[in-house]
Specification:
about 280 residues, MetI-like fold, 13 helices, about 75% helix
Length: about 280
């Protein structure tokens, strides 16, 4: 076999696992879209096959009955505020942890990493009582603060690992020019963190957008419900509108898919350039 033929065989062998993985991802997606476009009768007699006829009206019905417009807006507000808060706090905290050496920085970093292990559910009862006392129940700000507290350890972990790959010479040159550490970080270091920032945006947005438990407990007013709560509204005691549930899932997934398509290049760079190191 020639060298060119051997190279083609290796490329083909490398593509087979990727093709299998693509199929595994596409099959559930196709089934989800198919169920979203089925009538109730078609769903009973043909649950997996492609809908016949295609019930495009399911999307409009789900939008109106589930008040998806309000739920989408609430989810966008909570997710956007939460992600911006995580970026500002996580990057600011990770910078000194990545640059300073000693017991205190290491101990604080370990303390934050332990936050990845301890589940939030262990502290829900005292947290709910504290939020009641502060008047943050039925408040989007209250949910945003909880999401920031829950995801801040992960954000600091990602930023710290990436900052360690940034050359210190850039900061030393800025210090020689008289720039403060605050200005050095936000004008020189932070712009270099675009890949890991995209990683943080995608990962944290996905968690906050799909979170069900926190909005269920802390947002009890119907006009404050998020997308997961709106989808759950189609589940009744005696009947479930599965076609409308799947139609709502398709609608709710579009913003996250669009966000990933916009940031996918930076997301991959963030994973390979140090976001999971250190």
């Amino acid at each position: 076999m020639s060298a060119r033929g051997a190279k083609a065989v290796r490329h083909t062998a490398a593509l087979v696992p990727l093709l299998l993985w693509t199929v595994l991802l596409l099959v559930p997606l196709i089934i989800t879209v198919g169920i979203a476009l089925k009538t109730r009768y078609d769903l009973l007699v043909n649950p997996i096959g492609w809908p016949q006829p295609v019930a495009w009206g399911n999307i409009g019905t789900a939008w109106q009955e589930g008040d998806l417009g309000t739920a989408l807006m609430n989810s966008v507000i909570i997710t956007t505020c939460g992600v911006l808060g995580l970026i500002a706090l996580g990057a600011s905290a990770a910078y000194p942890l990545a640059r300073r050496v000693g017991r205190w920085p290491t101990g604080i970093y370990v303390y934050f990493i332990l936050g990845l292990i301890v589940p939030l559910q262990l502290g829900l009862v005292p947290l709910y009582r504290a939020w009641q006392w502060l008047g943050l129940v039925d408040s989007q700000a209250g949910v945003v603060l909880i999401q920031i507290g829950e995801l801040l350890p992960l954000t600091i972990f990602l930023f710290t690992g990436f900052i360690k790959t940034v050359p210190r010479e850039l900061e030393e040159a800025a210090a020689i020019d008289g720039a403060s550490q605050f200005r050095t970080f936000w004008t020189i270091v932070f712009p270099l963190l675009r890949p890991v920032t995209a990683t943080v945006i995608i990962v944290t947005s996905l968690v906050i957008w799909n979170d069900f438990l926190i909005p269920l407990l802390f947002l009890q007013q119907p006009d404050l419900q998020t997308i997961p709560l709106a989808i759950y509204g189609f589940v009744g005691e005696y009947s479930q509108s599965w076609n409308l549930i799947f139609a709502s899932i398709v609608v709710s997934s579009l913003p996250i898919i669009a966000l990933f398509l916009i940031l996918q290049r930076s997301f991959i760079k963030g994973l390979t350039g140090g976001a999971l190191k250190g």
